[in-house]
Amino acid sequence: MRRSVIGGAKRTTTTTCLFLLNHAHHRSLLPPLHHRLDSSSSCDSPPPPPPLLPPLLPTCRTPVLKCEYAVRGEIVILAQRLQEELKAKPGSLPFDEILYCNIGNPQSLGQLPITFFREVLALCDHPAILDKAEAQGLFSADSIKRAWQILDQIPGRATGAYSHSQGIKGLRDTIAAGIEARDGFPANPNDLFLTDGASPAVHMMMQLLIGSEKDGLLCPIPQYPLYSASIALHGGSLVPYYLDEETGWGLEVSELKKQLKEARSKGITVKALVVINPGNPTGQVLAEENQRAIVEFCKQEGLVLLADEVYQENVYVPEKKFHSFKKVARSMGYGDNDLCLVSFQSVSKGYHGECGKRGGYMEVTGFSPEVREQIYKLASVNLCSNISGQILASLVMSPPKVGDESYESYSAEKDGILKSLARRAKTLEDAFKSLEGITCNKAEGAMYLFPRIKLPEKAIKAAEAAKTAPDLFYCRRLLNATGVVVVPGSGFGQVPGTWHFRCTILPQEDKIPAIVSRLTAFHKSFMDEYRN
Ligand SMILES: Cc1ncc(COP(=O)(O)O)c(C=O)c1O
């Protein structure tokens, strides 16, 4: 049985499969139709026993069974069940509301969309409004102007038509100009692939890079489980490198070198390095000097650098600043001939949090024309990404400017959200740090805190008796007692023998006191129950 980093010290690939087996049988794997018909066709003999469900393994490929996605996993399924229970029988649980702190989905928790973005989207989707006199009163002048500009870039002004597989050229021009304004280095619209959020872009790169389990990708631990899931789905090997919790989740190049060497000694061809900056679930923002060392490492070792930069707008501390890896590489004098670099961006995060609109892009640089052709082929198999998401990606990279009618309201909305996120991060960090046995690094960026819990031996034994990872045990108890939903650290990977959970900073500010007081009361009673 192979030990899995993602499952923590005690998990094995076999346990992963068993967990998924149970769930899949409960959900959708009905017997084939002829079995169901056969079982009800006999009138004079007693009905035969119900047919066995088709065996799971021949139906589902092993990579599908191996793949796990904790942010929508067991705890969240339990939370949804409790929510139903609360609805059916109010007052039946020790809390009156489920408080979701499990996923980076800001608008599901009451964050409002940015007005300018939505005005432009509405006008593009129903251009007939643009000709009505009332439009001038209902929409800002710059959103009307922007909608016309965008519609003029779309062939036939048809947002309901497929586009070029890389995305509408005019929108890519706008995004390239936005990248150039951000970095101070040119960006080529032909390097951009517009996608339905960053996730499909990541999957596309995995499809490109992974041919067998001998192909590996260096991934941070802890990591966002999109990477472990996607590597598992495509049958590759995750080569872990550990972030250093003691130094605020530092990314040490010496650790990258060590893990690369070890993977190569096992016959793994390491193809790429994944870096998430700002980090999920860890919230650190990399220093530019550190990024330079990472770029140098990738260049020296011939690794593709997969830079997940979806939290680039989410930086909360004045001493840190986001620098794109492309800017860092270009400022070192490295161009297309030196480094293969893919940067992922999304409309789901930042201050806009438009997760449901499914927009994003990847900027692909340094690959040969032949490889680029293959990436284009992969994109074209999906035809194109959705057009509203494409428009939104262009707006995010080119928001209103000083002098535009919307500029002031746009800035006020953006600053209000980012400042509030910074306050929420600090309040939650302080609350975690005040609890017995919990340490917590600062959320310098992104949308999460990842506190470490030093669980008493008795609690670990109780978890083992319940055949549960200790952090899952803690999170389940927390949910059942308080309605607060957090994700166990084992879903992201952690140093074996350490236990964490991830808590988003996204609940609205008026909910934070309730979260803090419920968590504090629960934690005290949990520790009292299990103190050694
Ligand atoms: C680090 C990171 N990358 C990528 C994604 C994928 O986001 P989306 O597909 O919504 O763009 C997420 C979502 O939470 C994330 O946290």
CATH superfamily of the largest domain: Type I PLP-dependent aspartate aminotransferase-like (Major domain)
Class by SSE composition: alpha/beta
Mind telling me the C-alpha Rg? Answer: 25 Å
Cα-to-Cα separation, first versus last residue: 32 Å
Q: List the uncertain runs.
A: 1-45
Q: How many domains make up the coordinates? A: 3
> Within the largest sheet, what's the order of strands?
2-8-7-6-5-3-4
Number of strand segments: 14
Helix amount:
40-55%
Beta content comes to: 5-15%
How does CATH name the architecture of the largest domain?
Answer: 3-Layer(aba) Sandwich
Mean of all residue-level pLDDT scores: 89
Shape: globular
CATH topology of the largest domain, by name, is Aspartate Aminotransferase, domain 2
Mind describing the biggest β-sheet?
7 strands, mixed
Number of continuous helical runs? 20
Ligand identities: pyridoxal-5'-phosphate
CATH class of the largest domain: Alpha Beta
Describe the protein's topology.
Layout: H1 13-26, H2 33-38, H3 56-59, H4 62-66, H5 74-88, E1 99-100, H6 115-125, H7 135-138, H8 141-153, H9 169-183, E2 192-195, H10 198-209, E3 215-221, H11 225-233, E4 237-242, H12 253-265, E5 269-276, H13 288-301, E6 304-308, H14 325-331, E7 341-346, E8 360-365, H15 369-381, H16 387-396, H17 407-433, E9 438-439, E10 448-449, E11 452-453, H18 457-465, H19 470-482, E12 484-485, E13 487-488, E14 499-504, H20 512-530
Parallel strand pairs: 1-12, 3-4, 3-5, 5-6, 6-7
Antiparallel strand pairs: 2-8, 7-8, 9-11, 10-14, 11-14, 13-14
Keyphrases for this structure?
alanine transaminase; EC 2.6.1.2; Aspartate Aminotransferase, domain 1; 7-stranded mixed sheet; alpha/beta; 532 residues; pyridoxal phosphate binding; binds pyridoxal-5'-phosphate; globular; ALAT1/2-like; 5-stranded antiparallel sheet; Aspartate Aminotransferase, domain 2; 14 strands; disordered N terminus; 20 helices; single chain
